[in-house]
Automatic annotation (TrEMBL):
Its EC number is 1.-.-.-. InterPro entries: NAD(P)-bd_dom_sf, SDR_fam. This is SDR family oxidoreductase. GO terms for molecular function: oxidoreductase activity. Gene3D superfamilies: NAD(P)-binding Rossmann-like Domain. Keywords: Oxidoreductase. The keyword NAD does not apply.
Length: 246
């Protein structure tokens, strides 16, 4: 029987690449995000992808979405992002709130709503896309690092709480990934600053590289739980150690 995978934040970047890749792996994919026009285009291109409008920051939207699903075997909590690079001393409450809403509470809403279906499937996988920012802190990371640390902690707690249930809990923590929007959002639309992050870096990861890791994690045998997979480009040995060529 075809298995169903739900991917949040599927309208671009890692989410879109994951939706495409899981479809190629034979899943029925529900690609969920706010921007329906983008999802519709994606679904028109890939028959195994079904578009679904979803705002993970809204209780009603998540409830409606969950009710529309017959079942769910894999949930990829991917919706998230960073806003701003201010030091904590100048942290903007609205930005922090937004980052918490999407990254942390969005994942909580989706987890609460779909966990019963994942368990019911008999071999569910809940996969959280976190970040290396969930494992280390860095200057300017402020609210994003805090939100990603919260997600990392959520994954660890879930795995303990669900031990004995037929659901695997996996985290993928990517480092530097070059996507259309991540850096642009962080720099509030300043394309030049956004590009500078990747300047001279030979081979930052692509969204496809992360999607490849997602596919590997969710296609392991039922008894194999990949707890955490940290994935960085070869040029990024650590947060502060990035090789650049001019
Ligand atoms: C994105 C990676 O290094 O910008 O999650 O925090 S980093």
């Amino acid at each position: 029987m075809t298995r169903t995978a739900v991917v949040t934040g599927a309208s671009s970047g890692i989410g879109e690449a994951t939706a495409r890749r899981l479809a190629a792996e034979g899943f029925d994919v529900v690609a969920a995000a706010r921007r329906r026009d983008r999802l519709d285009k994606l679904a028109a291109e890939v028959p195994a992808i079904r578009p679904a409008t979803l705002d993970v920051t809204s209780d009603e939207s998540v409830a409606e979405f969950a009710a529309s699903l017959d079942g769910c075997d894999v949930l990829v909590n991917n919706a998230g992002g960073a806003i701003g690079l201010e030091p904590v001393a100048e942290g903007l409450v609205d930005d922090w709130r937004r980052m918490y809403e999407v990254n942390v509470l969005g994942s909580l809403r989706m987890t609460r709503a779909l966990l019963p279906k994942l368990i019911e499937s008999g071999d569910g996988v809940l996969l959280m896309i976190t970040s290396v920012a969930g494992l280390v802190s860095y200057e300017g990371g402020g609210g994003y690092c805090a939100a990603k640390h919260a997600q990392t902690s959520m994954v660890e707690t879930l795995r303990l709480e669900l031990c004995g249930e037929p659901v695997r809990i996996t985290e993928i923590a990517p480092g530097m990934v070059y996507t259309e929007e991540f850096s642009l959002t962080r720099f509030r639309g300043d394309a030049e600053q956004a590009e500078r992050v990747y300047e001279g870096v030979p081979g930052p990861l692509s969204a496809d590289d992360v999607a490849d890791a997602v596919a590997w994690c969710v296609t392991r045998p039922w008894n194999v739980n990949i707890d955490r997979l940290v994935i960085r480009p070869r040029a990024q040995a650590a947060q502060h150690k990035v090789h650049r060529v001019s």
